[in-house]
Amino acid sequence: MNNNNNNNNNNSNNYKQDLDPQSDHSSDQFSQQPQTQQRRPRGFAARAAAAAVAVASADADAMAAESGGGGGKGKKEREREKERTKLRERHRRAITSRMLAGLRQYGNFTLPARADMNDVLAALAREAGWTVDPDGTTYRSSPPPHPPPPPIPPSPLIPYPVRSMESPLSTSSLKNCTSKASLECQPSVLRIDGSLSPVSLDSVVVAERDPKSEKYASGSPVNSSQCLEADQLMRDVGPQEHVNDFRGTPYVPVYVMLATGVINNFCQLVDPEGIRQELRQLKSLHVDGVAVHCWWGIVEGWNPQKYVWSGYRELFNIIREFKLKLQVVMAFHESEGNESGDIPVSLPKWVLEIGRDNQDIFFTDREGRRNTECLSWGIDKERALKGRTGIEVYFDFMRSFRTEFDDLFVEGLISAVEIGLGASGELKYPSFPEKMGWRYPGIGEFQCYDKYLQQSLRKAAKVRGHSFWARGPDNAGQYNSRPHETGFFCDRGDYDNYYGRFFLHWYAQTLIDHADNVLSLASLAFEGTQIIVKIPAVYWWYKTSSHAAELTAGFYNPTNQDGYSPLFEVLKQHNLTIKYVCPGSLFSATENDEAFADPDGLSWQVLNSAWDRGLPVAGQNSLPCYDKEGYLRILETAKPRNDPDRHHLSFFVYQQSSPLMQRELCFSELDSFIRCMHGKSFDAT
Prior knowledge:
It contains 21 helices and 14 strands.
C-alpha cells in the first residue's frame, strides 16, 4: 500500500511539473519551442480558419496548374506578350532608323552605318563645340567668351542659333499663325512627340505654358511674344536667302498637261485654232513642253486591234509647229471627266462587252461590286480578252503607237512616254472609288475578290502551307471606315499578325508583279525612250500604326515596314523615271488632323527612297491652279533647300484647272512659278 501511494505521489508530482512553467522540465521544453502558443480556435473562429485554409489551398492548386505542363491559357498569354514585345521593338527600331536617316540626310551628321545613341550624342556634342574622346570623356577645352547680350529686336526672327533638321517638304506646315493671330498667341514652347514619325514636322507639338510661371522666360529657343513663321524656324540663323529667291537653283523643265477634251471619242481634234491659241500662250510663258493622254478607250475603242490615231496625228503636228517637247501618256484607264475640260472616256466598248459576260475581268470589292475603271491585274496572264492576255493587249497598243509616230521619235519631239498602270493612271489598286461612295478620309477597301485574283491568293496560301488563309480580311471595314473602327487596321490589329502579314505581302506583291510585267514589254516597245511611272500620294492615316489607306491601295507600308523600297528596287531594273503626285492643300488643316494625315512625311519617305536607289524623280500637282503659297510648296518639293546631295525633280508636269486661255488671272502666278523652276526669282524683276 505504501509503495502504491508513493508511486501515485510521484506521478502526481511529475504531472504538476509538466504543467508548472517554473519547473526545470518545463524550462527545458520551452527553451526548444516558441514562448507563446496559439490556442486552438473554436466555434465561429474554427470555421473561419478552415475556410481560409481551403481558399489558400485552391489558390496554390491554381498556381501550380498554370505553372505546370497543362497550363495552356498561361502559355498563350505569354506568347501574346512576346508578340507584343516584338511589335514594340520593331516600332522602336523603325523610329530610330528614321531619326538616324534624317540626321544623316539633312543634318550633315557623319554617323556610322550601325549607329547607336552613343554615336548620336557624340555627334551632337561635337557639333556644339565639345571634345569627345574615344573612351567617352567629354569636355570643352577652351570655352568661348560670352559676348554681352544684344538688345531684343522687334523682328520675330529667332535670337538663338537653331540647326535646321526638317523635312525639305514642310516649309508651310507651320504657317497657320499669321501676323494678326500672333498677337493673340499665348507664350509657348516646342516639344517633340516621340510617338510620331520624326520625318514629319507634324510631330512638333506646341505646348501651352503656364501664364503664371516664368520658368521658360529666357530658356526657350522661341520668341515667346510672337508666333514664328515656319521658314524662320527651319533655316539656320545668319545671312538668310529670301524665300522667293530661286536664282542659281537647278533648271527643272516644266510641262503643261493638255485637257482630255482636245480629242473626242471618235479620235478627232475638236478645236485646232483653240489649241494653237493655247499653245501660243504657253510658249509665251516659256514652258518646255506639253503632256497629252493617249486613251486606249478612244484609239482602240470599237474593235480589238483596230487603232485610230488620226486626231492625235493632227494634234502632234500642231505641237511641232511651236517647237515644244511632247510627253505622251498610255492611258489604260477610264476618265469620268470634270470641270477642267476633260470629257468622259470609258474603256474600249469591246472590253465592256466582254465584261458583261465575264465581270471578273474588273476589280471587285468584298461586296461583289465591280469597278470598271481599269482591268483587274488578275488577267495579266489570262487569255480573257478574245484570246489575248491583259499584258498582250497593253503591248499591242504601245507597239502600234510606236510604229505610227516613228518619225516623231526619230526627230526627238516625243521626249518621254508614261505607262498607265492602274486607277487614274497611277500604280495603285482602285481602292477609293467615288462612284462607290468613297469620301476622304475613308480607308478604302481591298480590291481582290474577282475570281482571277482569288485563284492567285489560294495558290499563295497553299504554297505557304496554310490553305485556310486563302481569303480576304473579314474585319477590314468599309470604304469610309476609320482605322480604329476596324479589327484589322486598329492598333495591334490583325494587319500585323501572321495571317495579316501574309495577306498584305501577297496583295502588295501582286501590284509589284503587275508593274514588272507591263514595264518589261514597255521597255521593248519604247527602247531608247524615257519611260515614266506615276506613283500616288496616299497620305491620310499616315500617322497611324497601320497606314490603312496605303495598305488598301497596295503599298505595304505600316510603321514597322518599308513599303516603297521593294517596289523601287523592281522599278530600278527598268531604268525609268518615277513621277510622284505632289500632295496639294485640298483639305483644311482640321480635316487633315482628323485623318492623321502627313503629306510631308510621306513625300519625304517616297522621294528619298527613290533617290537613294538612283531613280530619277519627277513631279505632278494633284490639284489645279495654285495660289502663290501653293506654288512655293511645290517649289520646296522640287528643289529641297537643305539636301546635301542637291537632289531635285527631273521635270514637273503642271495639271491645269481649265484651258489656260480661259484663266488669264492665273498667268502671273504661273509665270513666276515657271521662272523659279528654271532657276530664277519668284518675283518679277
